[in-house]
């Protein structure tokens, strides 16, 4: 009797182990497919600028009779595409470092206002037609975080609003508030926003909405923002129903509330 119980227990264990093995195998297959898809997306993203660099450099090489103006134009395209490639490779490298958790954070103290000032300057807000309104009830709150990484998230959100907001008189409102006991920074523009069906995927690598591919991004910016906020112990999310596009950055608990 005891022997048969033991046998039954062993057989149940075996069934369980087999199930676990099968699940692990399926997971591995899924990872391998994701890797293939990622590689094919990267190849596609690299191929576009490479094709134009190749084509225009061939024209320059072979076109002995080209006017100086045309030569300058083609050299300019090659230069812009090379910059696009470099940016793409930088973003890919940054994302990979963040995803693998190899990133070292440079923690220091400062106010949200100073991080926002830094981000607006880096995004060229002064020379951009988009008006930025800051309603900073809580901008004086001090943070202890990697402020350069946080600024990187803010720069991305400001640049995206500058690039994608389709309003005639574009306005971005940045507000720092406390919501349910947490400090949040909302970036809301007055464009037509992001369609409901795309709101879930915009934080995935290489995701772009509609015809925005023309704007030149590779769809890595928000994926990088999400990884940074994860590393900083905070969050980033799309806020639906705000009129235009609206993103909420929730800051980690490690705040220095000294400025209160
Ligand atoms: P990209 O590098 O292409 O800008 P992101 O990951 O930063 O990629 O953004 C993903 C996509 O989300 C963009 O291509 C764009 O379609 C959409 N998007 C982001 N911000 C906005 C915004 N403020 N208004 C409208 N669409 C936006």
TrEMBL record:
Residues 1-27 form a coiled coil. It comes from the Bacteria. Residues 41-255 form the Histidine kinase domain. It is found in: Membrane. Belongs to the sodium:solute symporter (SSF) (TC 2.A.21) family. This is histidine kinase. It comes from Donghicola tyrosinivorans. The chain holds residues 633 to 892 of 892 of the full protein.
């Amino acid at each position: 009797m005891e022997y048969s119980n033991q046998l039954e227990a062993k057989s149940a264990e075996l069934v369980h182990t087999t199930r676990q093995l099968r699940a692990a195998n399926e997971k591995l297959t899924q990872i391998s497919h994701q890797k293939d898809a990622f590689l094919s997306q990267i190849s596609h993203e690299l191929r576009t600028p490479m094709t134009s660099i190749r084509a225009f450099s061939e024209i320059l090489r072979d076109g002995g009779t080209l006017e100086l103006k045309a030569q300058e134009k083609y050299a300019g395209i090659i230069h812009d595409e090379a910059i696009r490639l470099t940016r793409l490779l930088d973003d890919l490298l940054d994302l990979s470092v963040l995803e693998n958790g190899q990133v070292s954070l440079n923690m220091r103290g400062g106010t949200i206002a100073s991080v926002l000032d830094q981000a607006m300057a880096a995004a060229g807000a002064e020379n951009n037609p988009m008006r930025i309104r800051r309603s900073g009830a809580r901008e004086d709150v001090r943070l202890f975080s990697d402020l350069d990484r946080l600024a990187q998230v803010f720069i991305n959100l400001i640049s995206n609003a500058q690039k994608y907001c389709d309003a005639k008189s574009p306005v971005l409102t940045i507000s720092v508030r406390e919501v349910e006991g947490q400090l949040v920074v909302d970036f809301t523009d007055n464009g037509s926003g992001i369609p409901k069906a795309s709101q879930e995927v915009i934080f995935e690598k290489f995701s772009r909405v509609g015809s925005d591919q023309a704007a030149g991004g590779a769809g890595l910016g928000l994926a990088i923002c999400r990884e940074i906020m994860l590393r900083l112990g905070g969050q980033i999310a799309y806020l639906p129903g705000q009129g235009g596009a609206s993103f909420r950055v929730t800051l980690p608990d490690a705040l220095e509330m000294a400025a209160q």
